[in-house]
Design a protein that fits this description.
With 159 residues, this protein is an alpha+beta fold. The chain has helices at residues 9-13, 31-41, 46-49, 51-57, 67-72, 74-77, and strands at 2-5, 27-28, 83-86, 90-101, 110-123, 126-137, 145-154. It has one domain: Thiol Ester Dehydrase, Chain A (Roll), CATH 3.10.129.10. It is built from 6 helices and 7 strands. The strands form 2 sheets. It has a 5-stranded antiparallel β-sheet with strand order 2-5-6-7-4. The relative contact order is 0.24.
């Protein structure tokens, strides 16, 4: 696997692409996961947790996952890359430019994701890599989630 130092801006920029990489692993979003997420966050909105009411009143006819549950699964959904960023001390989530929940994730469905690097930028405290991630319900063309994420790779701390 190709290794690229976090501070080799020019080499990292060669990984910027208009094309998405391969799909990552499929993960089933179960009703139990949705219920546990509701308990964790306190978001017990019926469209997520009330199966019988969803059958009667929801346009989806079944519970759907919380958008933030789908977002929180991204680390499990990430595909293996053909390169590895190395030499940094730590990497931190630096924020987002875009987060959209564009289609429902029904309970019991499987989701997967793919991504592409859209920007690399030197910052005073490290290197910022911007990645666009699309999460889809398996078999659906329209993404359920679109996320543009910034990760800041910091140099090692000298001790």
């Amino acid at each position: 696997m190709e290794q690229i130092r976090f501070d080799d801006i020019e080499r990292l920029k060669t990984k910027i692409s208009d094309e998405f990489g391969p799909w990552g692993p499929e993960v089933e979003v179960t009703q139990e996961m949705i219920n546990r997420f509701a308990d964790l966050t306190g978001d017990h909105q019926w469209i997520h947790v009330d199966v019988e009411r969803c059958k009667r009143e929801s346009p989806f006819k079944q519970p759907i996952a919380h958008g933030f549950l789908t977002l929180s699964l991204i680390p499990r959904l990430r595909a293996q890359s053909n390169f590895q960023i190395v030499g940094y001390g730590n990497a931190t989530n630096y924020g987002a430019d875009k987060l959209r929940f564009t289609a429902p994730v029904p309970a019991g469905s499987k989701i997967h994701a793919r991504s592409r690097i859209v920007a690399v930028e030197a910052k005073p405290s490290g290197t910022q890599v911007t990645t666009e991630i699309h999460v889809h319900v398996v078999g659906q063309e329209r993404p359920a989630l679109i996320y543009v994420m910034h990760v800041l790779y910091h140099p090692p701390v000298k001790g």
